[in-house]
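User: Please run a holo structure prediction.
Assistant: Happy to. Please share the sequence and the ligand.
User: Here you go; the ligand is adenosine monophosphate.
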Amino acid sequence: MRTVRTVSELRAALAAPRRAGARIGLVPTMGALHGGHLSLIDRARGESDVVVVSLFVNPAQFAAGEDLDAYPRDEARDAALAAGHGADLLFAPPVEEVYPEGFATTIAIAGPLTETLEGARRGPGHFQGVATMVAKLLNMAAPDAAYFGQKDAQQAAVIRRLVSDLDLGVEVVVCPTVRGPDGLALSSRNAYLGPADLVRAVALWRALQAAESAVAAGERDPEAVADLGRAAMAEHDVEPEYLEVVDPQTLAPLEAIEPDAETLVVVAATVGRARLIDNTTVRAPAAVATPATTLSAAPEARCSA
Ligand code: AMP
């Protein structure tokens, strides 16, 4: 695996394989690689001739007062992990390469997709920073496919919108969330958790499991589902910042859970020093049609006087 730091080096490294018809897969990351990132690299490796992993802590997606400075950084460790999972190129640019003097363009995606949930909590700059950075990476590497995690469900939906709206012509592959043995979603920010908070952090997964079971059992009221999730979190003494039942594409809150439809349950909470997010997708059961004739034909189904 080669590490490159400039856009021209990246393009030069990709030129020959691209001419030869190689399929290029890009895995954008902010580093502090864990099993979640590695699952994206594995998937890209399985589907691409050339795998590019980018490593860049993007200042534009952090609001003032967030953890930009504290964000874990260890390029040597990340490089060894990426190489061990078959990456061909590590693109690790300095900030000035990505945002040179005079940089002035921002991509803003309007509407609830970027204004609710993470957009509401982290401010409008967050998804603008993500969208601008992802668009830049896609232009820099011009991959055939780019790999993202379902762990950041709203980000994945924003990226799908970006790629579709700007005709970026790249396949967006969204991979399942990788969890630890207790269900906690792997995250670079788990590094902020001390031993006691690591145990409490399981509250998010417990909430999602409770919500999932309720939807799978036929509960149709999103508020009732969310209440069950909140109760599961309270058992671990964790208060959600939000816990909502939303449409998986638009992220708009659902008024009712429709039969046989996919439902996304999203949660965020601060545990100790870490702000954590997680989500799960669950399909509501199909409505069971019970024809009146069947009822009247079955004596045991009749009301007795
Ligand atoms: P980050 O370094 O946090 O920007 O994440 C880089 C990519 O890895 C994003 O597409 C994330 O959604 C994805 N990712 C992060 N955590 C996980 C996880 N636990 N499982 C699967 N993908 C993940």
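The two ends are 79 Å apart (CA to CA).
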